[in-house]
Amino acid sequence: VTHSIPACIGSMTINSKQVEKESPVSIFAVNKCYETVQDGTFFDGSGFAALVREGYKVRSDVNITLEFRTTEVHGVLLGVSSAKVDAIGLEIVHGKVLFHVNNGAGRITATYEPRGTNSLCDGKWHKLQANKSKHHISLIIDGNLVHTDNPYIQSTSADTNNPIYVGGYPADVKQNCLTSKSSFRGCLRNLLLTKGQHTELFDFSRAFDLRGVFPHSCPGAEH
């Protein structure tokens, strides 16, 4: 076994003696446990999760689905870029969700803005689906569809080769389709990327780099 157990451990005794957990000699990637816990991964607003070390190739088509819960009005959700301009990005800016795509000819953006008093930053779970099909892009939030016209119809492939960064990205990494540098604070779950018939569910505990991210431990809804 090469990865940690996603669990809470308490009241440990060795040879009838209780182990002192409050002042450990060393500690790494251990968060506090919560009275009420939901499925999901907690992002504390300071870092990111990095997936697919060898680089993820978006190319012509990708469908991204995830669920998020936050009370912050800014935060990076996901970015995949390249050394050139090709990239995709998902982010929350001023309480709106933006899906950016650059197939090489220029960035286009689908924007979802909640209506009236409805908020995406209310601490409740919201479902997001972002779809890129050649030069078409669309965004579905809680069943509401938005799409945008793309003037660059000849350019259809986002030739990315960098890792998938979720919830933020390192300061020295360029993201060509993200405008925000704010790390996401809140919980994410059920991150799925689909290409054709192949669907991949990403487990954050398998990320090759985790900073300020606590897999499988999402504190209960904030009141």
From TrEMBL:
PROSITE patterns named in the record: LAM_G_DOMAIN (PS50025)
Protein name: LAMA1 protein
Domain Laminin G per the UniProt entry, residue ranges: 38-218
Superkingdom classification of source: Eukaryota
Pfam family, one: Laminin_G_1
